[in-house]
Write a structure and sequence with these properties.
Layout (H helix, E strand, L loop, with lengths): L6 H10 L3 H21 L6 H22 L16
Helix pairs in contact: 1-2, 2-3
Length: 84
């Protein structure tokens, strides 16, 4: 699990990467860090908007993977089960 940088930094890095040989790893790192951040969100009303943002980011990463790495299996959107 990457520990350097936030999910926002890793997301930006994946979205700006133009080298296909590096892109898959950057997408994976961003997804893993994003999932962890989603799991760590507090169960508070204020976290709803951040969860929406994170879900949109995950979809953007999936779209990037489908468009730029069509031979790779697309990532699955997995929003952590928060008992809601």
């Amino acid at each position: 699990m990457p520990t350097n940088g936030s999910w926002k930094d890793l997301y930006a890095g994946a979205m700006l990467e133009r080298n296909p040989s590096c892109l898959a790893n950057k997408i994976k790192a961003a997804e893993e860090t994003l999932r962890q951040a989603m799991e760590e969100l507090p169960d508070e009303v204020g976290a709803v908007e951040e969860m929406r943002t994170m879900t949109g980011v995950m979809r953007n990463l999936q779209a990037l993977q489908r468009l730029e790495l069509p031979a790779a299996a697309p990532a699955r959107l997995r929003v952590p089960n928060r008992g809601e």
